[in-house]
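The following record pairs a protein chain with its ligand, pyridoxal-5'-phosphate.
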Amino acid sequence: MPESPYPASLDLDPAWTADTVAVQAGRPARVPGAPMNPPLTLSTTYVHDARLEYGREGNAGWAALEAALGALDGGHAVTFASGLAAATAIAELVPPQGTVALSSVTYYGVRNVLERLAAQGRLRLRMAPADDPAAFLAAAEGADLVWVESIANPLMVVADVPAIAAGARERGAISVVDATFATPLRQCPLGLGADLVLHSATKFIGGHSDLLLGAVVCRDAAHADALATYRHDHGAVPGDLEAFLALRGLRTLAVRLDRAEASAVELARRLSSHPHVATVHYPGLPGDPQHERAARVLPRGSGPMLSFEVAGTGEQTEAVLARLRLVTHATSLGGVESLIERRARYAGDAAIVGPTLCRLSVGIENVEDLWADLDGALRAVLG
Ligand code: PLP
C-alpha cells in the first residue's frame, strides 16, 4: 500500500454509531495543515521506492476508502474496479473443482460468472433458497464457499445470514454476503458471522450513478491479502477518482438512505392497495413474507429497494414505464434519483420473475412527487 503524506486517521471512537463512522472514517490524520479529504493521486508511476512503484500496486485514495469501509464493516477491505470485478476475485478463492452453494435468487451478473466457471469445470455450483436455511445448508454440504445476498435482487428475498454463516462455518466453508442492497448502514454481515462482505459501491455507497467500484471486506487478513494479490495480478484496480467519489458518497449515505427508505416504506404501502398493482415485494412492509426475517437481520430498516407487479400485461407495464416523467426508466440502483425497470427484459431474470415485475430504486426526491408520477402513469395506462 502506498503511504499517504497524510496517513488515514485511525482515532475513531468505538462509541460512535455507524452513521458517524461513515462521515469520519478514512480521513487524513488531524494534524495542523492537513486536508479534510485524502488527496487525489492521479499517477501511474512513482519515483523508485521499495514500498510503491506502479499504479496497479496501490493508491492512497483506495487506502482511504478501504480504511472507511473496513471500519464500517469491521474487517479488512479491498477495493476493485467494479462490484463484478470484486465478485470474480472472490470466485478465485474457491479451490480447483471446489463447490459453491449459491442463493437461487442472485444478481444475474454474479450468477453468470459462477455458471461460466462451472461450465469450464473450474468449480461445481449448487443453487438453493437463502430464505430457507435448512434447504440452503443441505445444498452447502461439502461446499467450499457459500454465497448469498442480504436482500436479493429483484424479488427482495432476505437471506438468513446468521443461520447460513454459522452453518457454513460448521461445514468449513467460506461465507460471502453481497450486502449491496443493505449497505454497511443496514447490515454488518461480519458481525452476523459471515467471512466476506461484497459491496457494489457503484450503487448506494457512491450514490450518484457516476462511478463504478466494488469492495470486499474480509474477516480474515489472509483473505484480504489473497484478493489484493488477485487485483494486482489481474488488473482489476479501481481508479483513484472513483475511489475519491465513492468516499465522498459514503459521507452522505446515512441521510440519503434514511430519506429514500422512508419514501420506499410509504410507496410500498400505497402501491400494495393500488387497484392496478397485483403484488408488492418489500421486506419492510408488515405482511410481506420476508418481513419477520428482515426485522431480525435488518433491524434498522429494509432499505430503498422494492419491486411490484403491475396488474396487466408485459406490454401495458412497458407503457406505464414509458409514461413516467420523474422516475427514470433505466437499469441500476442506489442513486439520488429514482430508477425503475421491468426485470423480465433481461434473459437472466426472465426465468424467475413474471412479465410485469418492476424493480424500483427509490431516490431522494419528494415522496409526493414520486407517488403522483407512479399513480398517474398506472392510471393513464390501465384506467
Ligand atoms: N451485486 C449486486 C447485488 C448488484 O446489483 C450488482 C450490479 O447491479 C453487482 C453486484 C455488480 O456490481 P457492479 O455493477 O459495480 O459491477
